Amino acid sequence: MTETTLASQPDIVISTDPSLLPESDATQPVRFADFGLSDDILRALTDQGYVHPTPIQAAAIPVVLEGRDVMGAAQTGTGKTAGFSLPIIQLLLAHANTSASPARHPVRALILTPTRELADQVADNVKAYSRHTPLRSIVVFGGVDIAPQTAALRAGVEIVIATPGRLLDHVQQKTINLGQVQILVMDEADRMLDMGFLPDLQRIINLLPKERQSLMFSATFSTEIKKLAATFLRKPLTIEVARSNATADNVTQILYQVAEEEKREAVSFIIRERHLKQVIVFSNTKIGTSRLAVHLVKTGVKAAAIHGDKTQSERMAALESFKRGEIEVLVATDVAARGLDIAELPCVINYDLPYNAEDYVHRIGRTGRAGAKGDAISLCTDKDERLLADIEKLIRQKIVRLHLAGFVAEETGVPHGRRESRHAPGKVAAPDHVRNERRTAVRSYSNAPKIDPWFLQPYQPSTTSGTGAENPGNATTVSAVKPGAKSVKRAALLGGKS
Hints:
The protein has 498 residues and is α/β, with parallel strands linked by helices. It has helices at residues 39-47, 55-65, 80-92, 116-129, 146-155, 164-172, 189-194, 198-207, 223-232, 263-274, 286-298, 312-324, 357-364, 385-395, 432-447; strands at residues 3-5, 13-15, 70-73, 109-112, 137-140, 159-162, 183-187, 213-218, 237-240, 251-257, 279-282, 303-306, 329-332, 347-350, 374-380, 400-402, 408-409, 414-415. Strands 1-2-9-3-8-7-4-6-5 form a 9-stranded mixed β-sheet, sandwiched between helices. Helix 3 (80-92) crosses helix 4 (116-129).
């Protein structure tokens, strides 16, 4: 592996090898057995059918086994979790034991993740890789009862996978001791900064021993993440198996330009036309996620929504139903954009373009995993042009624009792209100049001051002779009174005179 040192940061070493595919010789690719992993770990990998590592695994595992600090960057879906969990298990095997005493099982490795779903998935992988070893592991996140987590921590565990908030809850309740942590992992650290976890991360780092090994793995590394890494990583090796913020080549990216009011119908149309039976649809807001899921259910699609307002049990139940195929469409906020590993997910749809361009990389990374092909479809309205420009600038490529052929919005009954000709069936639309005149008339009428024309007429003396009738010309009328006549007093009720 070729290495060079950054001139501006002499303590950071960056890999410049573009392939990062080590081979034992010219014809034999590297195998997990070539890393010196224990038989128990290799047995667990064999149980899952894993023989050859991915590029990020092949590059990271030897370096982590050496005790080096690492910043690992790779496209999402390339196996970063195994890239740090396998060497961690191997390093901790020296302390593994079957004693029942909690003191013999202190926390030696801490893995931090931004979301509950990602924490749960990483924990499943760690348990699968260490199933034949005496090592204990636990996942800790909020939204569920804290009592079972407390009982497991007091019994002793070597590996803790946690979200920052719930971990600090356990620290405050003194149910966990981080004084013997040897390895710290930040998975998707850029997302943790986006979610405002920086103060929590600093508190957690201050609780850890100074002498430890620190690892950071993510699909994207922002400037803020690099600044954070400089504060607690020691001469880290930056491993990049692909260009930073790159999208997978096996994911076909498509963009459809639609009107805002047509987006829901467009999603239903795409699902029907492509006969999609498993797809994740991403929305930016919780309420938008719920409304889209309800709309899809009304159209006969088996759909469910997951977002931050759902309880953890509801989110996990929906996710498990989706994995089993009981739900065809999972409508989600960016809570599902990181770390979810759905086998053979053929397509993802961006109902809304993400506000953060880096989230686009993570969203479309849910498909095309482990070398499979996938489609990433995005809907774009006129107001999304700035977001689209930011995304294309980040990924350094233009997303293919296509026309949504055959799409007719059911609410309007008008083919997509012809909204300007909407009119009642059988009625000819007015020409452009007539419609413009109508708009001008409406605007002028609505802006005109409300003045009664009666007040604009000149004064005209009355010409009637005591009839009391109204002058047809709207002139002022007075009753004629004979000279010297005596006025007659009349009583009147509040209702007026007859």
